[in-house]
Amino acid sequence: MRPHGSQRSPLPPAREAEAGSSPTPQREEAGRQATQPAAGAPAGPKPKQRDAFFDNAKYLAIVLVAMAHSWEPLTDTSRTAEALYMTVYTFHMPAFIIISGFFSRSFDMRPDRLKRLITGVAVPYVLFEVAYSFFKRWADDDPGHPISLLDPWYLTWFLVALFVWRLTTPIWKLVRWPVPLALAIATLASVSPDIGDDLDLQRVLQFLPFFVIGLCMKPEHFQRMRGPKMRMASLPIFAGALLFAYWAAPRMNSAWFYHRDSVQELHAPAWTGPVMTLAMFGCSMVLTACFFAWVPRRHMWFTVLGAGTLYGYLLHGFLAKGSRFWGWFDIDWLHKPLGEITVTIVAASVITVLCTPPVQRAFRFAMEPKMKWAFRKDPAEQARHRTAA
């Protein structure tokens, strides 16, 4: 049986860290929007402007994430929904992870960056893991559901993975062949059932190559993927992927796309671990490149929402799971073509609202807490402030 419904699905959006800043949507390497200096103020270095391409990519990817979650309850009755679900799951998480790796290139063990890693990733993980656990107790009528920081529930696995990946960034910048090494680790993880569920380490290791690729990428690599030839080539590639997914839907276990289990846990022969790891990696990279090819380069109406994708990612999980707990998909007409279209539009609309600036301001206390009280003052930073004064 293909796992759907209550299964935890990888979902996205990643936080991008600016060179020398925290891994949060607001602090990316692309920088904050430039502001005009006050009259008479001394001219300082011009702040770097955000790159609209990356904000657009994050927003479009999170919309695909939400739509895929809305299709999941429909896959048991609709082969088309299953094909779309499998196709999107092939590339939406790799796209997020590659962007996360790209904006993690400057991460090191400097105190201010470690502080931001804690406040921007670790603290939100703890808060949302506890919140999700209480939500499941209430919404699913499961008062005995445990609160465990070692067993990420539903979407929070990505924060654990991002924390681990960023901490290991100096290692990947040191070794000579980082991508082959990361692929080897992912392959070994796929045939290692004893890793267990603690901190979802299977996912951390099996998705690792995409983060390492992001670390190795340069701006010109994204530029090459955005050429007109790549756009034209992506159309038949996407069409072929959809046709293959439609054929494979009743024949393939969709758990392969989650990268959550070893081959033994999927009841597959051991040799399929390396084969499927490399095959899935290749397919994901091709479709991710095709996705990037169609991301707009210019500022769009939704560009500003790219800074709030992590908010939408974590908050929409309550609705995604609540819709299952409360039986919203038990309505028969939702499993008809018109119902499937309606569900898709509603999912895209909801995730768009959850990425808006008002929602970001309302939940910034949980997603980007300051927490100055929790850290010692850095002597080097104090010295820099005294010099500047």
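The above is record 1. Record 2 follows with the same two-line structure.
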Amino acid sequence: MAETHVDDDLWDEFHRVVNMSSRELRDWLRTESAGPDAEALPDRSGPPLGQRVLAILGKRRTDLVAEDIEAMRAVVDEVSAARRSDLEPVAGQAHWRHRLMSVGHDPLKGP
């Protein structure tokens, strides 16, 4: 496998905006997807980007592939568009918070 380089800025920013642990994110994705039409495979619960974030959190930097880097950029862009740059805890509407939590960012937690 060819080595994929993740620049320091993206690596640091991704880990700054993703403020949920892999366990918190996994539990959230399962909870958010639970219901009468719940998925048959709980390990695949949640949106694809949330699942990709979960996978990235379980990898070493040197094991990332191009798709992981694209997902990292997408998460940083999504959180940055929805939040102030200081990422201070803020309560918002539930659907807004839940959307961000689905990619690993809980707006009620500090950076």
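The mean pLDDT is 86.
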